[in-house]
From TrEMBL:
<feature type="domain" description="NAD(P)-binding">
    <location>
        <begin position="7"/>
        <end position="178"/>
    </location>
</feature>
<dbReference type="InterPro" id="IPR052718">
    <property type="entry name" value="NmrA-type_oxidoreductase"/>
</dbReference>
<protein>
    <submittedName>
        <fullName>NAD(P)-dependent oxidoreductase</fullName>
    </submittedName>
</protein>
<dbReference type="InterPro" id="IPR036291">
    <property type="entry name" value="NAD(P)-bd_dom_sf"/>
</dbReference>
<dbReference type="Pfam" id="PF13460">
    <property type="entry name" value="NAD_binding_10"/>
</dbReference>
<dbReference type="InterPro" id="IPR016040">
    <property type="entry name" value="NAD(P)-bd_dom"/>
</dbReference>
Length: 278
């Protein structure tokens, strides 16, 4: 069985490959696609330099693949054309199953970040390709402990609960789907142990021994803060909008699906913070 991982040189892609290897998939059966292949050169898998804009190269890379872990593009505003190319190439190549990393409740949320994911889900449905939707929640790693210790924690999520999990947990769940059976057509809403940003600040304080406060702002003010530290305005607006939605519960996801795929409890927030504080 051949498994292709797109975006393999990113954090999630590498962790997914490591999890596949840990689950006994031979390195010879894994193909990693990306642009900075030196980042996964040590894994012993087949690697191919492929750009999401090149349908022919993608088709060639997918040919012979039984399953594809389709990790969404990282650039908001460019995902739809890139994802269209990936789906077109996968259909051209006759891929057996696509496992796509989406976002929580992509079909019902009003979060701006979900718009391109919903289009991608619709394109997959229209393609007729067998597929699985992994609607991944937030990464705990989205919150920099180093930055929180230096400047405090700032956001616009109010007291909304955020079911973040570690990248490693999401990667392991993806690997479980790829090596398992009976997942075709399933939609998994994946989230970790829920916490508010006030909770997060308290946990960082507890483990670091340094007082860290959470400052809650309006989405507009938070956008200004993000732009002020160098985040491009369009992306700053998307991040602030995500916090706005989180304040209303958009990023709360029960742990049920993630723990079912992992076959164990999700990694606790305290464990993740302990690793970051060291």
């Amino acid at each position: 069985m051949t498994i292709v991982v797109t975006g393999a040189t990113g954090h999630l892609g590498r962790l997914a490959i490591e999890s596949l290897l840990a689950k006994g998939v031979p390195a010879a059966d894994i193909v990693g696609l990306g642009r900075q292949l030196d980042k996964i050169a040590d894994l012993g898998i087949t690697t191919k330099h492929v750009d999401y804009a090149d349908v022919d190269a993608l088709t060639a890379a997918f040919t012979g693949a039984d399953k594809v872990l389709f990790i969404s593009g990282s650039e908001p505003g460019k995902r739809v054309p890139q994802h269209t190319n990936i789906i077109t190439a996968a259909k051209n190549a006759g891929v057996g199953l696509i496992v796509y990393t989406s976002i929580p409740r992509a079909d019902t949320t009003d979060m701006k970040l979900a718009e391109e994911h919903l289009v991608t889900e619709q394109l997959l449905a229209e393609s007729g390709l067998p597929h699985v939707l992994l609607r991944n929640g937030w990464y705990i790693e989205n919150y920099s402990v180093e930055q929180a210790l230096a400047h405090g924690l700032v956001g616009a999520a109010g007291e909304g609960q955020i079911s973040a999990a570690t990248r490693a947990d999401f990667a392991e769940a993806a690997a479980s789907v790829l090596v398992g059976e009976g997942h075709e057509g399933k939609v998994y809403e994946l989230g970790g142990e829920p916490f508010t940003l006030t909770d997060l600040a308290a946990e960082i304080s507890r483990q670091s021994g340094q007082e860290v406060a959470y400052t809650d702002l309006s989405p507009e003010k938070y956008t200004e803060v993000l732009v002020g530290v160098g985040v491009p305005a369009p992306f700053a607006e998307i991040l602030a909008d995500s916090d706005r939605a989180a304040a209303k519960g958009a990023l709360f996801v029960p742990v049920t699906d993630l723990e079912a795929l992992l076959g164990r409890p999700v990694t606790p927030l305290a464990t993740a913070i302990a690793a970051a504080v060291k």
